[in-house]
Amino acid sequence: MYGAGSGHLPKLLSGGTIEFREINGERNPLFPGMRQPEPIAANLSRLSEIVKRDKASVGLATDGDADRLGVVGENGVYISTLHVFSLLCLYLLETRGQRGPLVKTVTMSSMLYRLGELFKVPVYETPVGFKYVAPVMIAEKALAAGEESGGYGFRGHIPERDGILAGLYFLDLMVKTGRSPSQLIDYLYSKVGAHYYKRIDLRFSEAEHEAVNERVESFSPESLDGVEVVSSDTKDGFRFILADNSWLLIRFSHTEPLLRLYAEGGTQERVEKLLSLAQGLVRA
């Protein structure tokens, strides 16, 4: 993404049998074609097109300062950060046989809890931001930590995000298992069940902030989309966890004038329904 990640992966991966192509490798602080240099689906359409056109095995994207990772599968489909981090944890726990706690932010997937059960390791949860994650990583000697923005940290390295190391781990997972990204998603689902996810960002003025916050604070549903709400919390925003393990989170960004709506569920339809309900609430 025209930033600090340029050149590192080609240098690390050269000299073997891998055919590697770098795009957007020149330095450009204007980050052309993207509002912000984030490795999210909206900014990776060109990468997706090239992966499909050239029949590449995978597409990797680091952000402007290379501490975050985005992944595009061999079919050109963007893989959500929740799935990428779950796969990286599965890689460390199963493929490499390591053990240790996992750390997730409130916006990261509930798949981590299932992996924790399967491999008998604890899972710790923090508010959004590595300023909350890193102290827990250090205190608990965590194996891995991740947040929804695409930032992942690993034991034995700095207690911070590193998109380049995360990309190398993802490639090693593909090599060690002999699976493509889409096959890895299927394999992950065979372990933890199907999970779908989506985030919506809504812009609100400062004047609207208080009114929206009051509506959400007073929102205390017994059920959502016909499914019982079994718990709720305000660890970072307003989160509702349903009986079928789906969840909805409504939180204001601490870095931008945005209200963010997050949902994860067993079907894409459930995710869309939860987000629709949340949008109706905040725009009432």
CATH fold descriptor of the largest domain = Alpha-D-Glucose-1,6-Bisphosphate, Chain A, domain 3
Instruction: Report the helical percentage.
Output: 25-40%
Major sheet: 6 strands, antiparallel
Structural class: alpha+beta
Radius of gyration: 19 Å
Q: Which architecture of the largest domain per CATH?
A: 3-Layer(aba) Sandwich
Determine the oligomeric state from the structure: single chain
Task: Please give the count of helices.
Answer: 9
Record the strand order, biggest sheet: 8-13-12-11-10-9
Count of DSSP E strands?
13
Please tell me the overall pLDDT: 94
List low-pLDDT spans.
Answer: none
Strand portion: 15-25%
**Considering the protein shown, what is the CATH homologous superfamily of the largest domain?**
Alpha-D-Glucose-1,6-Bisphosphate, subunit A, domain 3
Specify the overall morphology: globular
CATH class of the largest domain, named: Alpha Beta
Tell me the number of structural domains: 3
Distance between the ends: 38 Å
- What pattern of helices and strands is seen along the backbone? HHEEEHEHEHEEHHEHEEEEEH
